Every structure is written in C-alpha cells, then in structure tokens.
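User: Can you predict the 3D structure for this chain?
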Amino acid sequence: MTHKGLFGFGVFVYLSFVVLAVGCEKSVEAGPLAPDFSISDISGETVTLEQYRGSVVLLDFWATWCPPCKMTIPVLIRLQEQYKDKGLVILGISVDDPQLIQDKDLLHFRQMTRINYPILRFNQKLIKDYFSNEQMAVPTMIVIDRNGRIRDKVVGFQPDALEKSLAAVVK
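Assistant: Here is the predicted structure, written as structure tokens:
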C-alpha cells in the first residue's frame, strides 16, 4: 500500500470511529424529564406522575368524539394487559370539554369500552407543559420511562409504532 493509500485508510478508520461513537452516543441519549402533574381522575381522586416513578407510563391524550382515539382504545386495553406485570401504567387523559362531557359520561364510556386503565381530566397547565406552542392532535401517546424521561411520542392511530416504542422501554 502506498503512503497515500495508508493515509486514506487511516482517515477512513478515524471517520468510522467518529460515526460509530456519535451514533452510539445518540442512541443512549435520555429524553427530557416529563413534567409532573397533579390532576383529577373521573372518580375525583388526585393523580400525579411522580406517584408512578419506577413504572413505564403511557399518557394517552384522547377524546370521546375522536374516531382514531376510539380505534386506539382496544390496543391500549391489550397493551395494559400484556405489560402490566412488567410495570406499564397507562393513563388516559381526556381532553373532552368538561361542560359537554361530564365525569359521569366518561365513567359510562369507560364501562362501555371496558377501559382497564385510569381516565384523568386534562387542565391547561398539563397541555401547556406537554405540548408547549405546538398544535395538539388526538390521539397523542407519550411514552415515559421508569426514570421519568420522555422516550417517545406517537401521534394518531399507529398501533405498530406504539407497540414497538413500548417494547423498547418496558423490557
């Protein structure tokens, strides 16, 4: 190999290590800390994110009037059953207008759909903390790891993407 060839090979090896190191570093990078909240469930109990530290939490922002949300519910019911023993907690956060859809309506909806996870009521602070200035779409599911860090956001009816995201975090 010529001197020029060795130099080119050396550059290639160096760049390969740089790309590999950057790639590895990015894959283990932690997401932002999920904002804590204190909101009521539809039974009037106060729920905080902090009380679920150590569990994988899936926040599902949804509404009763939303067809893709309704399509997602059976998937979430199955995932809650599948991963509950591995520490998954699903929290359904209704973004329905409380003046139009009252807690008793959500309780009835929960019974009719056989939802097996808590349903909470949104507040403006929660929406601001999780969506900032971006337009919120429903359903939006946010996956939070056992250390309270946001690992993924799945928007719309995407059962395969959601399952893949949860499988990577629940392990």
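The mean pLDDT is 87. The helical segments are 3-27, 67-83, 103-113, 124-131, 159-170.
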